[in-house]
Every structure is written in C-alpha cells, then in structure tokens.
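Assess this one:

_____
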Amino acid sequence: MSAKSNAPVIIKRKKVLSGGGHHGGAWKVDYADFVTAMMAFFMLMWLLNATTEVQRKGIADYFNPTITINRISGGGEGMFGGDDIFVEETLAKNGTGATQRNPAEQHLARGDTGSDASTDDARAREDRLLSEIAEAVTGCSGESMASTEAARHIVTKVTDEGLIVELFDLPESALFTPDSAEPTELLTALSAVISEAFALVRNEIAVGGHVASQPVVVAENRVWRLSADRADRVRQLLESGSTPPERIQRVTGYADRRPEARNPMAPRNNRIELILLREGTR
C-alpha cells in the first residue's frame, strides 16, 4: 500500500451567494423626483423674491382660473315633476325650471337658487365693469393710472361686496407718517388716482382702516382710534378729489383685528381698504 492511500481526503465546498451585486435602478427614479422637487422649490423662491405682490397675484390667478357656474336648473317641483327626453307629449324643458303645467311664480326659470337669467347677466356685467376699473388702477391691462412705484402699494380683488382696492405700507415707504393720520405724498397721489377711477361709475363707496399691532408694553394702545382716523383722512382726500361726499356710505376703523400678514406687527398690516360697493349693497 502506498503512502498516498493513507492521505486525508479534503473536500472544498464553494459557497454561492444569491442576490448580490446589482440591485436594480429604482433609486434613480427616487433621486430624479427629489431633484425635480428641489428645482421647483428654488424656482418658487426665485419668483417670490423677483416679483411684486401684484405680479404674484396675476400668476396665482393664471393657475386658478375662475369657472362660470350655471345657476339655472332643469328640474321640476315634486317627485317626477320634471320632463326628460323620453316625454312624448311635451318637449324637454332642460334649463327652464318650469316643467309643470302651471308652475308657481317662485319656480319660473329660476331653479333652486332663486336667481333668473336676467339677474345673472346683470351680475356678469357688473363683474366685468369692476374688473375693468381694477385693471385701470393696477395696470394689469397694460396701462396704469398710477405710477409704477405707486402701483406696488395697490392690490385689487372683486368680491360679493364689490371691488376692493387695498392700499398698504411697504417696509421702505409708508402711507402715513408714523403713529399718526397724516398722509404722505404717496397716499395723496394714490387717493387722487382712486378718486379718478371711481368717478367712472356711480357706485357707493366704503372706507376701512387697518393698522399693525403695537407692542403690549406701550402705555396707551391707540390702534382703534388710529385706524378710524386714518380711514376718515382718506375719506377727506377722496372728497377733495372728484368723489361726491354722498357716495361715501361708511368709514370704519378695524384696528389690528384683521391682519393681512402672519406677523401682527408687520408693516403690511397698515392698510386702507376702499370698496366700490355693488348696486344695492351698503
């Protein structure tokens, strides 16, 4: 027997790993989403820093268009009171709201909201007129009645109450001298512009004064008196222009109760609201 026959037998086992190496490219999709979100964030920050408040409002309105809603209903009164396209004896009355033989007066062509087509048309015409005045003041139509510098202090919006023209302070320029109702040259010029624009219609006017909060350590908090005095001073400026005194229906001081900025002491909260009231609104 040879010596090799007594040598120990050595068995080598090779361990094969599964699942190692490349794991796929799902992380690339997540990374691309992250980069896109960061790009959108930096673009948003750039827009906020490079545009005025009026321009930002125009951008917001572009991405949030107003959709006209038809208030006229096609249903009738009571169960199965309305007609449909399968009715053979009478024509369909979709959109009339008067599907019965003898409808009540309050249901004639008004639907559930109680407004008829003529009321909707009048409201639409008034909205267009108020929007045209707002565009003339802010320059959204291309031409502004106010200078470029003064237009930075103006924001307009059309509401159910009417056209609101808001004049507000900026950190570098104010409408009134500090802690007083004495208007600056800027506010005097803006009041003349607003008075000229409001002269295009005969709607009545409301004036509201708002001020920023004062520190709690002050001996006398004059926010109520100051806001009312400033609103009344703007009334005097309008009346010294082309606004008849009888058109101004109310002058109100709101103190610091309706802040526009998150910081209650921010200069943005110092503002005057001039409201061109809708017909029949006071």
Notes: Residues 68-101 have pLDDT under 50 and may be disordered.
